[in-house]
Amino acid sequence: MSEPLILGIESTCDETGVALVRGRELLADVTATSMDEYARYGGIIPEIASRAHLEQFLPTLNAALDAADVTLDDVDAIACAAGPGLIGSLTVGTAAAKALAVGRNLPIYGVNHVIGHIAVDELVNGPFPERFVALVVSGGHSSLLSVTSIADGVTELGSTLDDAAGEAFDKVGRLLDLPYPGGPHIDRLSKEGDRNAIRFPRALSNAKDAERYRYDFSFSGLKTAVARHVEAIEDAGEELPVADIAASFSEAVNDVLTRKALEAASSLGATTLVIGGGFSANSRLRELAQERASEYGLTVRIPPIRYCTDNGAMIAALGSALVRAGLPPSPLDFPNDSGMDLSTTYMAP
Ligand code: KG4
Ligand code: ZN
């Protein structure tokens, strides 16, 4: 008998994602985004995002079903993101998912979006090892996790004390007058710059912090250091070396992220580090993690870029892992949780 068919629904931010997964096989993954509407505001407007989810939900669902060549009759369980995320966006997606669950009499799992960023890796790189360390880096999160089961064995080792990596990139993007979101633009510019041009601070990395904040991050002081640097150059009336600033800033972020993540995996005796989340699309993070992994004798797994930014496949992948683990579905009245804890993989009964 074939494995259950899971319908995954993502709506935590600006992407409406719908995907179909059977076991660890991705059958279809369709994403619509309202990101283009935010360039002129310099940030996401939650009300616009919620309305876009409402408009995009049915067309995206139908496109995913068509692409997988299945109908709703074939679906065995529904997984939708219950948090963390924008409450309006979440509400549209979970309401739609619950309506489908009731109408079709299907079990529903309200899953953790951030854990989904890691779960999706199984669809491309195969089953996870028995234990591993995960680094989730996105616009809202920068966390290190210890994982014994993606379904129900996730513990948070540490996280950012202030800005997330993607958030820091977006803020520095604004400082450098780059379009929103700044992350991908800084990434592109970094490739033309000298990453050793400016020595920006590496927070929580010295011996004093090593004990207390061993697996934590902080990027807000770094952002301020970049702002001061930019001000000083502008005050001197000199031309801003944008590519060098981007490359040096990017290096400071990725140096700390990769070192702490590999240290964590190594000291916990894990052989594998899995990296996920929107920021893991960053080219220097991918390069540096692979480069340093060999020094530590560790394997690094990072999904291809299209599965790093928000999508339905990550939600379906986590739903599928929950079903495989034999975990009971969420109660139909499960809440949306904009601040969902990272050790909560889904809204369990
Ligand atoms: O996971 P995600 O799609 O949404 C959240 O759940 O937050 O992550 C979006 C974040 C944004 O901050 C965006 O600027 C950043 O990921 N990002 C990048 C790159 N691509 C996306 N940051 C740096 N380099 C990139 N190539
Ligand atoms: Zn995300």
Q: What can you see in these coordinates?
A:
It is a single chain. By secondary structure, this protein is of the alpha/beta class. The protein folds into 2 domains: 5-120 and 311-324, ATPase, nucleotide binding domain (Nucleotidyltransferase, domain 5, 2-Layer Sandwich); 130-303, ATPase, nucleotide binding domain (Nucleotidyltransferase, domain 5), CATH 3.30.420. 42% of the residues lie in helices and 18% in strands.
Describe this structure in a few short sentences:
The protein has 349 residues and is an alpha/beta fold. Helix content is 42%, strand content 18%. The protein folds into two domains: 5-120 and 311-324, ATPase, nucleotide binding domain (Nucleotidyltransferase, domain 5), CATH 3.30.420.40; 130-303, 2-Layer Sandwich (Nucleotidyltransferase, domain 5).
